[in-house]
Predict the 3D structure of the following.
Amino acid sequence: MEKKILYSGMQATGVPSLANYIGAIKNWVNLQKDYNCLFCVVDLHSITVRQDPDFFRTKARDLLTLFIALGIDPKENVLYYQSHVPAHSELSWILNCYTHMGELNRMTQFKDKSQKHEDNINAGLYTYPVLQAADILLFQTNLVPVGQDQKQHLELCRDIAMRFNNIYGEIFTIPEPYIAPVGAKIMSLHDPTRKMSKSETVNENNVIFLLDDPDTIMKKFKRAMTDSLNQVRYDPEEQPGLSNLITIYACATNHTIEECTKEFADSPGYGYIKTKTGEAVVSMLEPFRKRFKELQADPAYIDGIIKNNAERANIMAQGTLAAVKDAIGFPK
Ligand code: TRP
């Protein structure tokens, strides 16, 4: 049977965090066997916020390199920059004309982002979900792994696709959400009632970044917030900090929460648990960091991957774009 097509995108806003890895990227690595996957560094989306040119270029390249270091095979999957495939922009314009302002007005992410960037509420921020729809629909995507925050955008994408198909026939595959087997939710190390977020601005110690060196990782874990109950129980309500450490330890060692809680039951204190968790995370991340450095030291290899993947993505996208233009009636 033909493998289904799975599409996901990520913005290059800083090095991904441990939460991004455990909650999303690790899943992608597992999905690549069963699906035809496209993973896109969505750099066109990034310019809805002002970017420093050099920093922007570096971050985008680092993210793509990191994906490879984390185990995404750039030959089996299509791993590319959105800006290298002009069809994204072209289809996005077309789909703008099949999207209602009323629909975009309802997008909660637009409302949130406009509040955050009051000085730059640009039209791109507003039509961001249409570009995202174009990403997905260009490749006849069957499945899109979605977190809670992207559900509304995928719903809109489906609505746009169905509207278009109703007018012109079956041009687009209607994508479905891919609900990952419940992944662990990793919380901030200092404020374990909040998600660990890579765009953390308050305190860097809250977040483990995937390229942190072992010393930094150990330091961050040693400072992690726990409680004064002095008992080892997995109880995210009463003991959120400790429970977060147990979750991280379980993910890093591939054990269950129960096994890890048991293992820690007689530990001499929370300090021991912090150290063990830090060490487990170092063991998990260190090979990725090494591989990242090796890849970075071989720019010609990365350049080749980028070029080859952009070519493949362009070829794949052309079919859909041509069908769309033909259906609408653009001159041949
Ligand atoms: N908007 C997504 C996010 O912020 C990123 C994204 C862009 C995306 N295009 C996509 C995700 C297509 C899935 C499919 O996380």
